[in-house]
Amino acid sequence: MKKKILIISGGISKERAISLDTGRQVAKELRGNGYLVKICEPDNRLISIIKTFKPKIIFNALHG
Prior knowledge:
The mean pLDDT is 97. It contains two helices and three strands, in the order E-H-E-H-E. Helix content is 39%, strand content 22%. It has a three-stranded parallel β-sheet with strand order 2-1-3, sandwiched between helices. The relative contact order is 0.37. The chain starts with a strand and ends with a strand. The longest helix has 17 residues, at 16-32. By secondary structure, the protein is α/β, with parallel strands linked by helices. It is flat, with a radius of gyration of 11 Å. Helix 1 links the parallel strand 1 and strand 2. The protein has helices at 16-32, 46-53; strands spanning 4-8, 36-40, 57-60.
């Protein structure tokens, strides 16, 4: 079974675009190494996504 990793990126800072790019690049590398990855924003759905996806690791790709 693949390990699940949740990447949090985006947000509302001035560096949102950089954070989204970081999240995409990290996800690409992790998927290439066999991990099951989901990317999400730090919004009101975050807790629900964590409960549903049940990641082993949460990677913070927020900037700013």
